[in-house]
Structure formats: structure tokens, C-alpha cells
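Weekly structure sync, notes
Attendees: PL (lead), two postdocs, one rotation student
Agenda item 3: pending single-chain targets
PL asked that the sequence for the first pending target be pasted directly into the notes so everyone works from the same version. It is reproduced below exactly as submitted, 163 residues in total.
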Amino acid sequence: MPHTHETGKAPRMPAPDEVEVLGLVPLLEPFFRGSVVRDLMPAPLRDAMETHGLTPRHGAVLPQLLAGQPLTVSEIARRLHVSLPTASELVGSLSRAGIVQRAEDPANRRRVLVSLAEEFRPPLETFVARRTEPLLRALDRLSPNDRAGFLAGLTAWVREVQS
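Predicted structure, written out during the meeting:
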């Protein structure tokens, strides 16, 4: 059941079985604390992000490019659940910082392919490995069905927060 706030209506109070979930959310704060993220980031990546005023939203693009296959801006937008103009703006800032490269798609010259600049691959791989350790350990303890439920829940939550 969607939970939307309508103007003039009081927000819905959580049901007793939802309170436990809500109580866990603030406990994730250390994972998102800027100083923790900054300390895990290798110097070349941290310096580029700080010098160019890049934010966690910019950083969300980077793991998408680790697989090595260049992506179109449309694919990045779809993966991040953001609009095409937002994805284009993020990629543009990362490109100006030299962290990503844009190139014409040889198969379709109207499309732009985005890839990770090779000098940033090792620092990004190190950062992602450090950053994802707690999540990967948690996922290792989940059954395939529980993983699917976890993914579905997080995806739904992201969509609600972004809308």
C-alpha cells in the first residue's frame, strides 16, 4: 500500500510491525556519514571529488561503470532511477573532473558512451571493496529469497524517496 502525504491530511502513523523496521533506519547513519566515506576513499578519488565539488549523487554513477562495459547516459539514468537530464548533468560533472570519459558510440553516432577513466579504476575498486564490506557480509547470510526481498524493499524505498 503506497504511503503518500496529501496536503491537509495528517501523515499515517506506522503500524506496530513497521516500528521495528523504522527503528533500524537511524542505525545505518554511520554507513552514510561523510567523514567515514571520505576516510575509506583512496586519495586520488577523494581529491578529484573534493576539488570538483562532486557529491554522493555523482559517486553513485561510478560503481555502475566498474563492470568495464561503457554505458549510455540513458542506461545510467535507468539504473539510478533518475531523469535523463539529471544523469546527463552527473556524467558531465564527472567528465569535467576527468573521472569518466565520454565517447561517441561507433554503432550509433547519436549515442554517447560513458566509461570510467582508467586511472580511476584502481582507486574506485579499492573504495567499493572497502565501502561494501558490511553490506556484502550481510547479503552472504541471506537466502536467495531473502536477497530478492531485500532488493525489492530497497528499490521501492529509493523510488518513494526520489519521487
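Discussion points:
- Strands lie at 71-72, 100-105, 108-116.
- The radius of gyration is 18 Å.
Action: rotation student to compare against the earlier draft before next sync.
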